[in-house]
Amino acid sequence: MQTLKHFMSAHFHQDWFDEYSGSWEDAVDDFVEREPTRIVEALADIDSIRVTSDAELARLLDSIGNYYWPGDAPNAHTVWLSGIRNRLAAAAAGEE
Length: 96
Hints:
There is one protein chain. With 96 residues, this protein is mostly helical. It contains six helices and no strands. Helix 3 runs parallel beside helix 6 and helix 4 runs antiparallel to helix 6. The protein is globular and about 30 Å long. It starts with a helix and ends with a helix.
């Protein structure tokens, strides 16, 4: 979970919105560009998360440095993290 913690705190910190013009995709792409050797570790960390609810996932992500708010939809955090995972997996496969 160390790589995901680093990823969240370094790319979704309090000022992430200003740094990445509000684009979570740009934040993920910055991670991919700056730390390509950690993509597989980040994917493994995401895959290791076992939560029972979106609210639990929100608490977990917030506890490791996340300041992104994906919205109030019932599964907003789950959908967002899945989007991150898909983008990282595409980068790992060379499909950027």
